[in-house]
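Final report, Chapter 2: Outcomes

The project's central promise was a pipeline that accepts a single protein chain and returns its three-dimensional structure in a standardized token representation, suitable for archiving and comparison. That pipeline is now operational. To close this chapter, we reproduce one record exactly as it appears in the project archive, with the input sequence first and the structure output second.
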Amino acid sequence: MKAKRSKKHKRRGAGSLEPVYVMASFSQMAYIDSLIETSETTSYQYDKLRQRAKTELTEGEAEEFIGELLEIQRNPVLGGHNYQQGDISRMLKLLR
């Protein structure tokens, strides 16, 4: 009986230690644009957010930016804008 040979496989790209940056997707950038439009900011802050959105963001930077934008969104119920019963329910759950 012959001994089995073990095959050595080379990993492609394993030798490269440089990080790979993945740019933000179109859907992330569109989501960022819509969040900026509905954010509760001054005109100066709005301009700064727009300027930041125009830069080339990586996927991770876009996720962080989306998180920041979600924190400064207008409350539809307290803002007096058009809202639905689901908005009221979510607000009441947060107050409990």
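Archive annotation: Confidence is low (pLDDT under 50) at residues 1-9.
This record, like all others produced under the grant, will remain available to the consortium after the project formally closes.
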